[in-house]
Amino acid sequence: MNLLSWLFNKKSDKNVLSYYPEAVLIVSLSGEILYANENLLKLFKLTSEELFNMELLDMFDGGFNLVSSLSKSDDSAVVRSKLNLEEDLFFEVKANEYDDGEEKIIVTIRDVTHSQKMLNKLLFEHEYLNKLTKNKNTFLTKISGELTSPIHSINGFSQAILEGLGGEVNEKQEKYLKIINKNSTQLLELVNSVVEYSKLESGLYEYEFKNFDFVNLMTTLFTQYKVKADDKKIILNFNLNSLGRRNIYSDENVLKRILDIL
Q1: Cα dist. 26→14, 48, 99, 108 in Å?
Q2: 8, 101, 23, 13: which is closest to 56 by C-alpha?
Q3: At 143, is the secondary structure helix, strand, or coil?
Q4: What are the φ and ψ backbone dihedral angles of 110, each rounded to 5 degrees?
Q5: Which pLDDT value is given to residue 262?
Q6: Which residue of 20, 68, 184, 187 pairs with 155 in a disulfide if CB–CB is 3.0 to 4.6 A?
Q7: Short-list 1, 46, 32, 37, CA closest to 16
Q8: Tell me: the pLDDT tens digits for 144-174?
Q9: How far is the C-alpha of 238 from the C-alpha of 221, rounded, in Å?
């Protein structure tokens, strides 16, 4: 029994409900409206005569079936008003059974229109942003081939020319070709990172879990990072002597991407 039911039984007088801050209804177990306090009439903008000619289903979604179900639990429900009011109203409905010689249900109704509309707005915006993000990531994933193919060509041909495939190159040409090759390699890494991140974000990425040697992975990455660190005069240390296990079970590519970000 909740506080409202206890007070009502204690006083044995419906006048106690006049002082209750929320809208209150008393209904029979058959769904007949027996009593309503002034707050309820104000909330629904009804007269007593109008109210007692109604059923709960005329007032809000779910009606008596919802109230009956709520009276058997500690749950509450948010419902929409079905009356022809100036704007959509949302109510939080709670119900409890009580017995004053005859079993009845006491219903409290609280106006939650503002918070519910804010929630609906947030849910709509969340769904919209999720859809927008998914569409963006799907687009990036689909055009990944179109993005990477020309970069691969630039990278591959510049490397081939550097190696003398098109004939001997002079010092100046070699300098420019190395710049082209280096920049195309960096651009390719960036595009691959963006595409993989998009796949992860949109749920399109297919994880490849397997056992691999973590020390070997870190050694390879350390070699790559050290070149960049040396260029920037950053001291990079690497020590895995205290590592208990070499083999781990995970997605190696995802782990590489995470370490690249770090």
Answers
A1: 10, 13, 12, 9
A2: 23
A3: coil
A4: -125, 135
A5: 63
A6: 184
A7: 37
A8: 777 788 888 898 999 899 888 878 888 898 8
A9: 10
